[in-house]
């Protein structure tokens, strides 16, 4: 069982046949993205979808003067997200994502009907799950994401999800995780790690946030997988 709490939104109609696990960004909580479940639940295609929004543990963020906040892993330099890596924290969080996926499988969800997604830090974590999950899932969503440098030594761990569809949305006005880092992530996962189905979408004028167009594109992507 996962060791972290989560905001959970059950299906409109039982039994649940699919699941979306979405990981928030730095300083946020699962509740911050629960609106996403409400949007999808308006569509009958998601009436039997279960939504899980895990809460990251509290971490003293070095880049923020050791200020404690929810984080999937530590950050050391805002000007260079790859300057130093919190390998221990990153791998612990990856284990938690794996536990949430296993939980849904144990509850009867077919792995092909599970989507793992995230925003910013959560997106970096979601992307890395394709390299470590012991089962092939339905898809990955990464919004304003980047590639954690730890991915380089994970790339040969598991090849089950090399054909798993990935949706990566990124704003061209993002000053927190610049578009260049998003494109670097696409290159790393597509070229170095061998992912074969990586969609990359740019959104003009979008800063480090989401927008209606990106959310609608994300919903369409998920719908193709689990609806």
TrEMBL record:
The keyword Lyase does not apply. Keywords: Fatty acid metabolism, Hydrolase, Lipid metabolism, Serine esterase. Residues 9-225 form the Phospholipase/carboxylesterase/thioesterase domain. GO terms for biological process: fatty acid metabolic process. The keyword Lipid metabolism applies. Belongs to the AB hydrolase superfamily. AB hydrolase 2 family. This is Acyl-protein thioesterase 1. The lineage of its organism: Eukaryota, Fungi, Dikarya, Ascomycota, Saccharomycotina.
């Amino acid at each position: 069982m996962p060791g972290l709490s989560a905001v959970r939104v059950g299906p409109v109609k039982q039994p649940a046949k699919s699941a979306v696990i979405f990981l928030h960004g730095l300083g946020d909580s699962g509740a911050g993205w629960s609106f996403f479940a409400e949007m999808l639940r308006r569509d009958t295609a998601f009436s039997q979808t279960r939504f899980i929004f895990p809460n990251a543990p509290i971490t003293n963020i070095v880049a923020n003067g050791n200020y404690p906040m929810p984080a999937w892993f530590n950050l050391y330099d805002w000007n260079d997200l790859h300057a130093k890596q919190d390998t221990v924290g990153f791998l612990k969080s990856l284990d938690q994502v794996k536990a949430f996926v296993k939980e849904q499988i144990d509850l009867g969800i077919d792995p092909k009907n599970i989507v793992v997604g995230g925003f910013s830090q959560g997106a970096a974590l979601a992307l890395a799950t394709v390299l470590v999950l012991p089962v092939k899932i339905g898809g990955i969503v990464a919004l304003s994401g980047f590639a954690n440098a730890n991915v380089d030594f994970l790339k040969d761990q598991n090849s089950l999800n090399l054909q798993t569809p990935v949706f990566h949305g990124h704003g061209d006005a993002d000053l927190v995780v610049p578009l260049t880092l998003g494109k670097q992530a696409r290159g790393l996962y597509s070229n170095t790690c061998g992912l074969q189905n990586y969609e990359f979408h740019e959104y003009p004028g979008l800063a480090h946030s989401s927008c209606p167009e990106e959310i609608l594109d994300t919903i369409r992507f998920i719908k193709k997988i689990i609806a």
